[in-house]
Amino acid sequence: MFAAVAFLALVQQAPDLDKFVLPVSKPIACPPVSIDVTDLPDAMPWAEKAKTLVEEWFPQITALLDTKDYRVPSEIKLVVKKKINVPAYTSNATITINGEWITQHPDDLGMVVHELVHVVQHYPGGKTNVGWLVEGIADYIRWWRYEPEYFATHGRPKIDPAKSKYSDAYRTTAYWLAYVGKKYDSRLVFDLDSAMRHRQDPLGVFKNLTGKEPQELWDEFIEQKP
Ligand SMILES: [Zn+2]
User: Fold this and answer.
1) Bridge partners of 80?
2) Distance 67 CA to ligand 1 centre (A)
3) Which residues make Cβ contacts (< 8 Å) with residue 187, sequence separation at least 6?
4) Which of 9, 34, 61, 129 has a Cα at 20 to 30 A from 168?
């Protein structure tokens, strides 16, 4: 009798263990990856490395996001152009890379992981597809899952408490997501991704998981100076 009562008390006081566990989906095998370097044939060795990275990281990225209903593209294309005005961009399952950028930054393979996240995100259009958050999640996977050891030297964003915002996108948003996820609930990024896939308001996820609004969580982040 005493044991049963004690057990009941333990159950009632048990913390919500789910919030400490990083949720994962079943990893999905990478579809065929093609390379097009007709515009810059010298980029072939780099493109081969990028292809291997895509093949190895596609299953890992699909595991980190809510991909159970994700429709896998029939092919992922890596296209290197001589020069474009950004380091890289992604349209559906085609990643276009700036040859000039990779010539100057040959070690920037993390950028490929960022772009590959966009291939897996492939969110439906509409109001729920919040651009800054899409970029923040892509950089979160790059800097916290793919190359966290380089965060301190290459990834740390300049945050100005007077000017920076949680919606600054990229590394600033990514850093904040990592902080909030670690402090409050490991399901944060997974649930934000899930909401955008299902045309739900992703900002409501913050209140659901933490009881706080994004701005309160940003103020906390700034105060902690992580
Ligand atoms: Zn991006």
Assistant:
1) 97
2) 19
3) 18, 19, 23, 181, 209
4) 61
pLDDT in tens, 134-178: 999 999 999 999 999 998 888 899 999 999 999 999 999 999 999
> Per the structure, how many domains does the chain have?
2
Same domain, 71 and 115: yes
Domain that holds residue 112: 18-122
* 222 Cα: distance to centroid of ligand 1 (angstroms): 24
Q: Tell me the whole-structure pTM to 2 decimals.
A: 0.92
Q: What does the alpha-carbon distance between residue 79 and residue 66 come to, in Å, rounded to a whole number?
A: 27
Q: Do 46 and 109 form a contact (C-beta atoms < 8 A)?
A: no
Alpha helices in the chain (DSSP H): 2-13, 44-64, 99-104, 110-121, 131-140, 170-183, 188-197, 204-210, 214-224
